[in-house]
Design goal:
Length: 318
C-alpha cells in the first residue's frame, strides 16, 4: 500500500494512506485524468462502513469519470485518531476537506452519499457550497430521518441472534459484486467497533446540525442536478423480522414494536426520500424494487447510470 505525499492523484489508478495531520486516511482513486473544470466524483459511505461494498460502482464509473472513495477515521484501512474525539458529521466533513487538500484534488465535486453518507455529503455541501455541483443520494438519511422514523437498529439487534443477515435479507443471493469482491465485503468487520459506535453516538446531533442549514427551503444546489434513489428496504426488514420470529428471537414486546414500526415504514420513507428533491430545481427520483438498502451492492449499474446523468446534465457554468 502506497504511503507517500508525493503521489500524483490526478491520473492513473492510485490508492494509499494520506496524512490529514493527526493521522492518515485510506483513499482510492481511478478514472480518466481530469481536465480543468471536470468534477471529481466522491463516494461517501454509510454509517460505520468502509469502501469494500463499492468496487462495482467504481469500475463502472471509471469509464467516464474520475472517482474517489475513502475510508473515514478508524474504519477500513484508515488509521484511528490519536485521541478519539466526537465523530460528528461536521468533523467528518472537515476531515474530507483536509483529505482533498492533501491530495491536491480541487473542486468541483459530485458527491455520492449512501444511507448516513447522505447526511455527511450534505454537511460537506454546507461547508463548501460553491464546490459541489451535483448529488447522488442512495437510500439516504436526511435531517428528519432520526426524529420522524426512529432508528430500528437497537430493536433489530435483539432479534438477530443466530441469523445470517446477508442470507436472510437476500443480499448474498442477489448481489452484483464479483465473488472475490463479495468475499472481501462479507468478511470486512470494519474496526473493532469503536468508531462505528462513535459515529452512532453522534448521529442525532449530526442530523440536527444539518437541519440548521435549512437546505430544502433554500434549494441550496440551485439548478445543479440531484438524483434521489429509494431502495426497497422494507423487504429486507420484513425478511429479518420473519426469520427472527420463527427462531423466537427477541421478546414478544420487541417483536410487536418492530411490527408496528414496519407498518408505516414504507410510506414515511417515501416522504423522507422525496423531500430531498427540494435541494435543487433539477432533480429526479427513482424507486427500485430490486435493491435493498445497499443499492451499490444490489444494483451498481443503477448507481453508475445516476452518476452519469448528473455529469451529463449539470450546467456548464453557475
Amino acid at each position: 500500500m502506497a504511503d507517500s505525499s508525493d503521489i500524483d492523484w490526478q491520473s492513473g489508478d492510485k490508492s494509499g494512506l494520506v496524512s490529514i495531520g493527526t493521522h492518515k486516511l485510506f483513499a482510492k482513486i481511478a478514472g480518466p485524468t481530469r481536465k480543468a473544470g471536470e468534477p471529481l466524483v466522491i463516494v461517501v459511505t454509510g454509517l460505520g462502513s468502509s469502501i469494500t461494498s463499492w468496487p462495482s460502482v467504481l469500475r463502472g464509473c471509471i469509464r467516464f469519470a474520475r472517482i474517489m472513495a475513502y475510508d473515514r477515521t478508524g474504519l477500513g484501512k484508515s488509521e484511528k485518531a490519536p485521541s478519539p474525539s466526537p465523530r460528528t458529521g461536521e468533523v467528518i466533513a472537515e476531515e474530507l476537506s483536509t483529505l482533498l487538500k492533501a491530495m491536491h484534488l480541487e473542486p468541483p465535486y459530485v458527491l455520492v452519499g449512501q444511507s448516513y453518507g447522505g447526511i455527511l455529503a450534505r454537511l460537506f455541501l454546507a461547508q463548501r457550497p460553491k464546490d459541489v455541483v451535483g448529488l447522488c443520494l442512495l437510500d439516504a438519511n436526511q435531517e428528519r430521518t432520526y426524529s420522524d422514523r426512529p432508528i430500528v437498529d437497537e430493536l433489530l439487534e435483539a432479534m438477530l441472534d443466530g441469523i445470517n443477515y446477508y442470507e436472510v435479507c437476500g443480499m448474498k443471493k442477489s448481489h452484483k459484486l464479483s465473488e472475490e469482491d463479495w468475499d472481501i465485503m462479507a468478511s470486512d468487520n470494519g474496526d473493532d467497533g469503536e468508531y462505528v459506535g462513535l459515529e452512532k453516538a453522534d448521529y442525532a446531533s449530526s442530523a440536527d446540525a444539518l437541519a440548521a442549514h435549512k437546505q430544502f427551503d433554500r434549494q441550496v444546489l440551485g439548478s445543479y442536478p440531484v438524483s434521489v434513489v429509494r431502495a426497497n428496504t422494507i423487504r429486507e426488514l420484513n425478511a429479518i423480522l420473519k426469520a427472527a420470529t420463527e427462531r423466537g428471537n427477541g421478546t414478544e414486546e420487541q417483536r410487536a414494536q418492530v411490527t408496528k414500526l414496519f407498518a408505516t415504514f414504507d410510506a414515511l420513507e417515501e416522504k423522507l426520500q422525496r423531500e430531498q428533491l427540494r435541494l435543487s430545481s433539477h432533480s429526479r427520483y427513482h424507486f427500485t424494487e430490486n435493491s435493498g438498502h445497499n443499492v451499490q451492492v444490489y444494483e451498481p449499474d443503477l448507481v453508475v447510470d445516476e452518476v452519469k446523468w448528473i455529469l451529463q446534465s449539470r450546467p456548464t457554468s453557475s
